[in-house]
Amino acid sequence: MKKLSYAVVTVIAGIIVLAGGGYTYILYALPDVGEAENIRIDPTPEMIQRGAYLANHVTVCIDCHSGRDWTKFSGPIKRGTECIGGEAFDHKLGLPGTFYAKNITPAGLHDWTDGEIYRLITTGVTRDGEPIFPIMPYQAYSSMDPEDVKAIIAYIRSLPALENQIEASRADFPMNLIMRTIPKKANPDRRPSTSDTLAYGRYITQIAGCADCHTPVVKGEPVEGMEFAGGFEFTFPNGNIVRSANITPDEETGIGFWAKETFLMRFKAYSNADSMKTVRPEEFNTPMPWTMYAGMTSEDLSAIYKYLRTLKPVKNPMERFTVND
Ligand code: HEC
Ligand code: HEC
Questions:
Q1: Before 313, cis peptide (omega within 30)?
Q2: Is the pLDDT of residue 13 over 80?
Q3: Cα 52 to the chain's mean position, in Å?
Q4: CB 219: neighbour CB atoms within 10 A?
Q5: Which of 83, 189, 196, 263 has the smallest number of Cβ neighbours within 10 A?
Q6: CA 148 – CA 152 distance, rounded (Å)
């Protein structure tokens, strides 16, 4: 009996030491994406213009980092709040913690070097070496062309410095540990030439983060074989649920029957962000940043369309919107 309990104690102690070692490793050695690069961006007007286009209409940094008016369809941004941060992504939306989008105007980032901002965008690691929650699609940005990343940095550095003190984010256990294991070193691609429409479309789709919202997730992992098949659930604070659409070319449940013009018109219909209709809380609304993507060029939207047509059609019937009653 004594012997047994000794063995048990040894085993338990072993587990504690091992777990403790793993814990210490995760806590102190991760994330490990290397030092921020020592880069200095020399902004040209063309870079700032390119960055403005990407940040507002493609990578939609503005979408999360500005105030949103959720009384309107698709939550257009509140003018004058561009990049001041403060939107909460929290338990009310079904997330494992409370994460505040940060102030990324120069008032928020004045202590950051260009290399530190670059590393954050492409790996999700802050200047203090801490991981951010992957609701910011840094994994999608990881393969962005360095020229595009630099253009975005040049643009956000050119914005008016607006003070807005943001509370610290807090992840629940065990997400606070899991988060440390997610960041990887960036894996930059070159932006393909626009004449190679398919490769170019794939690139734009990637950095626009379409897959992040349009792939269903089980226990935090995207479901394999269901890329772009929709069904990712978004919970509104009142408990209503909207599910992302199936944008694979399946003819029954996806966008197989959509002509290119239908696709383009669907986006362009939201070009005037100031005229979005008022939506009551119980009515259909969506996190799909329609008003921001509406500013994408027809060339870029057409390239996305072309790329989406090449995906494997996946059947995925779903209810788009469920009212909580
Ligand atoms: C889907 C929403 C979303 C998008 C899109 C997004 N971000 Fe973020 N970002 C966040 C959230 C939320 C945080 C804070 C996360 C946390 O604290 O764990 C954050 C953090 C940051 C930070 C860290 C700032 C600090 O003070 O710690 C920077 C810089 C940043 N984002 C820049 C960008 C840029 C540039 C883009 C576009 C290329 C972008 N973000 C796109 C949601 C988003
Ligand atoms: C923040 C999450 C989010 C992002 C990012 C996002 N979508 Fe969506 N999308 C949704 C949701 C939710 C819906 C369903 C509700 C609606 O129609 O707005 C949707 C609907 C759509 C529809 C309408 C399909 C139909 O059958 O009516 C299309 C097309 C679409 N998305 C394409 C895209 C493309 C292309 C991208 C990338 C450029 C993208 N989405 C990025 C969340 C997102």
A1: no
A2: no
A3: 17
A4: 5
A5: 196
A6: 6
Classify burial at 309, counting beta carbons within 10 Å of its beta carbon; exposed 0-12, middle 13-18, buried 19 or more.
Answer: middle
Encoded tokens for 99: 């994460």
Nearest Cα to Cα of residue 39 among 146, 129, 141? 146
Please write the tens of the pLDDT for every residue from 245-266.
Answer: 999 999 999 999 999 999 999 9
Cα(295) to centroid(ligand 2), Å: 15
Residue pair 223/316 in contact (Cβ under 8 Å)? The answer is no
* Cα–ligand 1 centroid distance for 61 (angstroms): 7
pLDDT, tens only, 281-296? 889 999 999 999 999 9
Q: What is the pLDDT averaged over residues 169-185?
A: 95
- pLDDT confidence bin for 219, thresholds 50/70/90: confident
Average confidence (pLDDT) over 31-45: 95
Ligand 1 center–CA 136 separation, angstroms: 5
105, 279, 227, 250: CA torsion to nearest 10: -140
Residue 294 near ligand 2, beta carbon < 6 Å: no
Residues with CB under 6 A from ligand 1: 55, 59-61, 63-65, 89, 99, 101-102, 104, 108, 117, 120-121, 126, 132-133, 135-137, 141, 152, 156, 169
Residue 48 has pLDDT above 80, yes or no: yes
pLDDT for position 159: 97
Which distant-in-sequence residues (6+ apart) come within 8 Å of 232 by Cβ?
213, 214, 215, 216, 217, 243, 244
Residue 11, pLDDT > 80, answer no
Q: Is the dihedral angle over the CA atoms 143, 193, 229, 281 positive or is it negative? A: positive
pLDDT over 90 (residue 15): no
Query: 283 CB contacts (<8 Å, ≥6 apart)?
Result: none
Determine the distance separating the centroid of ligand 2 and the alpha carbon of 214, expressed in angstroms.
Answer: 7
Distance CA 155, CA 148 (A): 11
Cα–Cα distance for residue pair 247/230, rounded to 1 Å: 7
